[in-house]
Fold these 2 entries.
Entry 1:
Amino acid sequence: MELTSILVIILIIMGLSLAFSIGANDETLSALVGANITKFKIALIIGGIATGAGMIFLSGGVGKMVGENILGEGIEYTTFMLLSVLISSIIWLIIGSFSGIPLSSTHSTIGSIFGVIIVFSLFQGDVDPTTALNYEKLNSVVISWFLSPLFGFLFTFIFFKIISKFFLSRLKGMNQIEKSEKNFSWLLLIAVVFAEIWVGANSAECIGIFHALCSNGSLTLAEKDFFVVICGIFVFLGIFIAGRYVIKNLASQMTDARPCESFIIQISSSIILMICTLMSLPISHSHVIVFCILGLNAGQKREVDYKGLGKMTIYWVLTFFIAGILGGIIYFGFLSVSLI
Amino acid sequence: MPKKELKKMKIDEITQYFMNKTTKQNMKLIRAIDHLIIENFEEFEKDLKYVIENKKEEEIKRVFESKIWKSKMMFSKADRVLVFNRINKIRDLGEILARKMLLYRVVFPDEQFKNNIKEILELLKTVFLDLASAVKSIGKDLEHSYEVSQKIKNEHLDLRNKAWELLSNLYNYEMDFISRTFLYLKDLIEGIVFLADEAENFAGYLQFLATKYLIFE
């Protein structure tokens, strides 16, 4: 078997593993489980199916953006490039996990792509770094990383203020509040399913690999579609088999949250996610969620941990560059070995 | 109320029912001390035995626990349990004071002391009635519950000051009481203060609930 074929198999395995880990790390369902709306297993099945369906049917645009459109004209991913991107993202995410820094896998992936393509254009000749990437698309992706949390914040803030003025502030006693929260529980169920669909649809880092393999001819269109379906199944398995621990853990800390608050956060973040997905922009769901929570806190005039937020923002910005440098170094390493 | 009827009640209704029972128990306790002041020991003991009797309360507790266990309202479950437990705490303190008071038949030292105790009892009565009203309001009007709780805090302050004064009088009587009378009266005043302290803590908790659940425009 040729080295390229072996690498393609490795990339497919890594892509499927990514799909599994996306499911395993998905915390969206914790709001549902924390509010005790459905039985735990039923929540996992509903969430898993929604995420899987989103990935299978709606991830095309974002996947194509990462796997194809972000590159300059005439540039294609090689298997070594993809491998470098994945290894670099994984290393940076592992470092982040061990250091307790919340990092975005989307930012890491795009950063790594940037680094790899720049090294490719510098050391493989005949490619101008200024045209090696589609900077218009890359800019829109990077801008969306800043705008999506900001809009998440504003949307949640305004949405909360409206609901609060016309409904929540009119509830006077615990009986009334409990009755209204019962109705919000069902709305939360719908919002979480909606959110899961768009989480699956915006999972660029795994779907992008298959698009890239398809665009460089390593996979046929039918094979790519087949693997996207398998990714959908893997994301379901990720939630059902491994995600339950993250969800259970977070849910136990969320029992105090009112379903109406969780509903506002989930619906706001999923709308942002949906808009970005429809615009083929890969964004970080966790970043949007964090800012939606901040938007709600601001609406409720609660204290905000600005120090923690500042620290988080620095890492968000750094992720792109560090993953880029790491990706570049790894690709340069591969390049040196293959040149030898 | 038969157990069947109790089981049909909602969590808030059971809490109200338990609060009503506890308030009734506390009123009996205050009436018992009134009887003690006028040395009507027969009525005094009758009222205290009512306070100590707790078969029905145990039944209410069991029904409440089974209901709250099944409740789907995760966000308010813990608060509902805490409200119920705080009512129970007041009931327990009342029972402990009643048991202590049954240990001995005391005769109050003088009219001044009797009048002072009566004043404190009046305040305690107001505190308990207000507490019942505040607890009753949490289901329908948390803002009212908050305001009544603030009133309880002020009443508690008055009661404490009067109790300290009375305790100081007790220590400074010219004649030396036999130790049983002194201890009994000291325990009585302290028991009343403990009850009022618990009611004040409870009021603080009710204010916390109001700020936690009410969303203002």
Entry 2:
Amino acid sequence: MVDNDAADLISISFIDGEYFVFDIEAVKRLRNHHHVAGILVGTLPQVPQQSTFLGLPVQLMPEEAALLVQRGVARIIDEGSSHEVILAVDENDIDEATAKLKINELESTGSESQGQLVSFTTPAISTANRIALSESSVAAVYDTPRFDVYKYLHKRGYFISPGLRFGSQFLAYPGDPLRYHSHYLVRGLGYGEEFSLLELVGSGRLGTGVKKAWMVGGHVPDDDQHKLAALDSSKIIESEGDESIEDFVSFCVEWAGFG
Amino acid sequence: MKKRNLNAIYHSPLPVEVVALPPLVPHNPISVAYYVYQLVFVPFLWGFKRRRRLTAYLELYTDSVSSYVSSIAVDSYEDMQELWKAGFFGKGTQSRSDPTWALRTAKRLQEASGETEIVAPEEVTARRRAARKRFKNARALAEQGVLSNPADSEKVEANEEPRRQKPTRVEDLALRDSEGNVRQLEKLQLTFQEAFFLAYALDIIDIYDDRTGDLVTVPYLLGLLMPDWSPDNSFIVNYVVYHHYRSHGWCVRNGVKFGVDYLLYRRGPPFSHAEFGVIVIPLYSNESKNQLMRRDWYWSSGVNRVVGGVKKTMVLCYVKVPDCIDKWHTVEELLKMYEVREVVLRRWIPSRNRD
């Protein structure tokens, strides 16, 4: 599985349906070069209340993992089946000494190919022995309205975090969340998908109450693009390079509070 | 500023009059006679002089296929006042809730009236906002250190109270009738549930078709409001909930401004804020349909935050929908087929709910 490019790939561990990054260098790279911040979820033993300050690993949303894989900067490691492979190796080695040798061997090969990564995961497991999943494992996310809106905002340089506490799918930050408050509560919808006016009112009100705007947007299917162009030419976003976002409409709702 | 006596203005919780019957002593013929007189004749006699029935107009929107009710409104000033003061029904089309447009306009058109009695919620809000703005300006100035210089602070004082010259606008002239009174351009718009409750449950309102002038009877009104006659029609499901809470003595008002279906007030908007925000959820016997109608966590989290942010409790009101309903059911039979049950949902944060 390991080839030359693979050394540069960020390994995203897929554990029980969730995506994690355990490597601090990878986390830095994600944050600095790919504006993917993720959420720190690991507890720090030295911080007494393990709720505010958290450490590695970083958990990624499925959309973040999918985007990174789609761009070819990361790969998904299936930790569950990798673990079983390692266990199978250990069971065959009845002799304790040879088992230790095997582990050492694994460690050394690991440190050669991706040294730092090994030290942050279980020392016995090297990346060489882990099972990387193909792109199809995240492809289910690609065609969802959530992913469309995620990609749309991410492409424009927004940092995006989960938005459940504000009743939205995402929060969009104009820069690193450590420096900025979020500007938008984001809701991705299918084009032509109906939603209730009560949701519009409630979300608009909530957004304004926390000094944000509620943003709703959807990907325009190809056969509707000419209609949109007729409506307003400025709403068509020109395609850039290989990215597949050509057309997306979005609106912001704020609570005016007249009367 | 004079505080109004709310109990005197809004003395009646519903626009109906209740007559207490005298105590009945069975072995005393005089008591029995008096009781029968009170029970039978007084309401009959009162029927003529008691309260006149209220009048509302129904506006139909008709397309090629069918007709829909587009609005039901009351336009007589007395009826509007009565509906608002007894039960807080409807909403003034030019006002936030209480139909006070004419009062406010008259006040605005008058020359510098100075400190007057506050009658409309809009005025309360305007005054609060003005006070807040003054406070913010003063604070900003204090932060700049301008107030440390007495000469400047006097200047600020002078700027604070600009005498507003009211410009006479051309369109204002059209607001007065020939006698100089402000014309009543406002209507009290009723929600369909309110209108149906007044027509069916209280039977105190006559609804007329706006175009033909015909009286709309209760069964006909029901047919207009739920044209498809499906058991989970949004009108009937919402009406069941409306009727349910009105029957329990709550003042029920539309909750769209907080992203919920209904707001429950203990007595009414002038007395206190609404305590509960009600969300109506139809519940089907068919579980797969329930799954189809399921709402997500984002919705729940968002609504709960809006409702919780204004110190209300979120009530999920489940309405059990019958499998089928028939047109020959009376309204009473129809309502008996629905069941209402409630669940309160609250955001609970361990660290904030400890004390």
